[in-house]
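Entry 12.
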Amino acid sequence: VATVAALYAIWRPINEAMRGDDVRGLGYFGLTTSQFISIPVFLGALLIVAVRISRGVAPEKTYEPPPEKDGDLGTAPRL
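Predicted 3D structure (tokens):
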């Protein structure tokens, strides 16, 4: 999720520049509101990714069905 947030924060200003989105206007430091918000989102996401990498990213858990007993087909749920 943090990687997606970081990539979106990068994509947002590029997207606004390609659209020529002057309607939103310039505000803080010559940036649009969305671009200004993208800066802390990117920094926060970068921090999360850095912390996860430093701790070692846990491998994904895969589903393993329970072992079957011989001849045990289970029971159908009662309605």
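Annotation: Helices lie at 2-19, 33-55. The mean pLDDT is 79.
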